[in-house]
User: What shape does this take?
Amino acid sequence: MTEFLVKYGEISLKGANRMAFEKRLMRNIARRLPRGAARVRRTWGRVFLAVEDAHADEAARILAASFGVVSYARVARFAKTEAAFPQAADFLAGELAAGRGQSSFKIEASREDKQFSLDSYGIACLLGDLLRARLPGITVDVRRPDATVRVEVRDHIYVYAGQHRGPGGLPVGCSGRGLLLLSGGIDSPVAGYLMGGRGLAVDAVYFHAYPFTSAEAEQKVQQLAAALRRFLPALTLYVVPFTAVQVRIKELARAAEITLLSRCAMMSIASKLAARHRHECLVTGESLAQVASQTVPSLHLTGGYATVPVLRPLIGHAKESIIDIARRIGTFEISTLPYPDCCTLFAPRHPMINPVVAELRHSFERLDLEDLLDESVAGTATPAPTVG
Amino acid sequence: MTYLDWAATAPPQAPLADDFQLGNPSSAHACGQRQRRALDAAVADIGAACGWPAAEIVATGGATEADHLVLYSPLAHLRDSRAAFRRGIVHSAVEHAAVTEPARQLARMGFPVQMAPVGADGLLDLERFAPCLDDATRLVAIVAVNNETGAIQPLAQAAEIVRGHARRIGRRIHLHTDAVQALCRGLEVPVTAADSAAASAHKLGGPVGVGALWLRGNATLEVLPRGGGQQDGRRPGTENVAGMRAFARQAATLATAAAGHLRRAARLCERLIDGARRLRLEVVPRHRVERPDCYSPYIVCLAARGIPAEVLVRVLSDQEVYVSRGSACASGGQKTSPVLQAMGVPAPVAGGAFRVSTGWSTTEADVDRLLDCLERTLPRLRAVA
Assistant: This one.
């Protein structure tokens, strides 16, 4: 068996709800591993995950992508006697050797059990000597060590080195369910990721206007969904047939209004889907003033067609910071594939940026879209997840 | 299935088992020599089909490589860094990317590169061509038949201008032509007015990755790549004997039947253009209607104004009718074709331009099928355009 020690941050601040959050985190981690292969337990503000050795690498990947996890490390547990330290040193020497370029270390020891025969300093001295004997050339550096070895004396002696960072935040699902409007662009996957980090269980909806948008554009969105599933493993992608709506808008609306009216229709369809699939909110990648449909009056208009709250986590983000996150979570390279998500045919040269909300609402009503919106919802498909 | 994208690639004809034999044509033993003779015979057949002396033919891995051997030759002539500024390159504004991209790269290195403009008819503007040549000009590239519009370039007149200019400045100027869409099709294109030409096997139904460079015997051009010294140092690397044999067979077959194929292509072209005009499609350039002789009937560029060609190609593809958006090599991108831009085609037309290209087995039924599909599709798309 391989055991991991998992530390979480914000959850511990959550007062009376703390237990629920912890349980959610444990369940999220256990669910992603094969049934029976993992055992998760919780103690002293820590979660311990024990997995069969064959699943150790997979478990590490999962912890690195589980919201709520602040850090994790492979941990070894020994009987609470001084005689256990040589064995502990063997384990730690292996861990340090596995981390490349680590030529110095320090030891941080803590004792919950103050009755233990050695104090923290004594533990550090003993273990330090044992490690130096096992790793020729390694030195102790208490100020700027390459690696920190930690020893905790509790019911057993726990030792670990090489802590890895998790994504932090709150465990997925503890803040309810949301539906992300996912385009092929850079922003919306980042918005989904950020809300996942706030504990929202995110599903996604994509509006497909074939043949005006290509099959490749849909595949690209599927790839984005697959990339998001690394952090949001249960994400379902809904693909909405949007061509009929788009064509009606193009035929009847004034050119400058097309983009905004399309966004209104998307909000309306997404709300209908949310009601049907029990999502409590919509999530968009809108960032204030980034494009014409993201000015305050535009957001006022389009947001008015949502029947659940619209969360816009990127609203105050600059494009550069959005791109940074997109690169970090591996969606940037997919988003920048050259398939446009919305055909140029439907993009007016001069889209409206300051709509008069009442006028545009009137324009939307005149389109008489209700039947087509319902047909789009009825025709929505959930393609099988692609491997990604 | 209605395949109308022959300019991208022609239906591949199966290679013969006999094409593949043991032996490196550079080996001295009997196996090698047998391969050498097979290669020589293939090269001779290609030469006969294209009108080139066998000794002047270099086997390559496709037309792009053949273009590159010539286009990158200024680098081989570079004796010191200052020399870069003394070997100028001029190419037409309607070259294939296999020519424009190396030229762009050389320009970044400091070589003087000029682009000779074309008229709205897609043909090299001879009056504006001459002033592009200057004292530094050493290499000129003019495509024989443009791959997007089918425009047959005035190669003979351009060659005369180049020769005259070369005499005046007392220097040799190498004239290269990408002849991929010109050869073995019965077209009257004076490819040998140039000093070198690039050919591709797969555009004729031969294998992909096989091509040839015709390089006039007295050309002083030095190629950049170095290696085993094969083909008199003109192209290093073991020759693809099997590929060249298959190429030769196709070239010979097509050259024999070319006159008939051309007549048929002309009929199909006329039928297509008539039908397209009935459907209110634009013929690009419109000049080809009055001057059909200046254009290859195998390649027709049409445009549905305001309808992105990408969408039209997709809709036709769903009906198993295969045409392409500009050059197949560039059709993945969203940019307007540089060729159409150079011709001054307005953006809504250029954006809606698609290429229909035919070949030896295209029938009237194929053209009619395309026109039928367009007739059914266009109203729906026009409604939203």
About this structure: Chain B touches chain A through 14 residues (CB under 8 Å). DSSP finds twelve helices and twelve strands in chain B.
